[in-house]
């Protein structure tokens, strides 16, 4: 199984500042035949199901604000929030879909 | 719009089975894989498996082999996940989550979740 490890476990950022969350996979999730990274990011607020933010490591889901961006390749990935808003308080998860069983990082709790 | 409506909360005794349903609407039922993901209280997300609604083939995480059964009813556009031999470790919110891209494995619409509590 591919192990996904996020850092940090929790993060406090001031409103309007940049937040950065890291995700590392135990093996590459870059599929060479199509040069795509099989990596997604989700946001989960209390009492709600997760919401897809980013897929293919850097493609923003429709309707997701452009302050959210994803980057990285191979085994190292980053989710950035350029200017933190109050509504961004949540737990963020990375997920690999390179191979089954699909696996998630342990989550990063983002606070103001 | 896409909607995934799950069945209500369940309380089960250890050793029992639970069957959770997920009724889909707003899209072509047979076109998109459906996944099941669970979340224990205060914990992270765990993928359990998927079902191809066109044909009914499944792929489950090894951890749940022999204990989980995923099915679908095309006549009612409903998916089912049955988990047997329950223990307290199975207490969790169970989500159905539709593949956003049809088959790739990242999850777009999610159900609201079904809390399954295993307690004697």
Q: Would you tell me the overall average pLDDT of chain B?
A: 96
Oligomer: heterodimer
Largest sheet of chain B: 7 strands, mixed
What distance separates the N and C termini of chain A? 34 Å
Provide the structure class of chain B. mainly beta
Identify the overall geometry of chain A: globular
- Could you describe the largest sheet of chain A, including whether it forms a barrel? 7 strands, mixed
E-strand count of chain A: 13
Q: pLDDT average of chain A, as an integer?
A: 97
Report the count of strand segments of chain B.
11
Radius of gyration of chain A: 13 Å
Number of helices of chain B: 0
Put simply, the count of helices of chain A is: 0
Please identify the structural class of chain A as seen in this structure.
Answer: mainly beta
Helix content percent band of chain B: under 10%
Unreliable runs of chain B:
none
Question: Biggest interface, and residues per chain?
Answer: A-B, 20 and 23 residues
**Unreliable runs of chain A:** none
Describe the structure.
The complex is a heterodimer of chains A (112) and B (120). Chain A has 112 residues and is mainly β. In chain A, 0% of the residues lie in helices and 50% in strands. Chain A is built from no helices and 13 strands. Chain A has strands spanning 4-7, 10-12, 19-25, 30-31, 36-37, 39-44, 51-55, 59-60, 68-73, 76-81, 90-96, 103-104, 108-111. In chain A, strands 2, 6, 7, 8, 11, 12 and 13 form a 7-stranded mixed sheet that branches. In chain A, strands 1-3-10-9 form a 4-stranded antiparallel sheet, with no helix packed on it. Chain A has a two-stranded antiparallel sheet with strand order 4-5. Helices cover 0% and strands 49% of the residues of chain B. Chain B is an all-beta fold. In chain B, strands 2, 4, 5, 6, 9, 10 and 11 form a 7-stranded mixed sheet that branches. A 4-stranded antiparallel sheet of chain B has the order 1-3-8-7, with no helix packed on it. At the A-B interface, β7 and β12 of A face β5 and β10 of B.
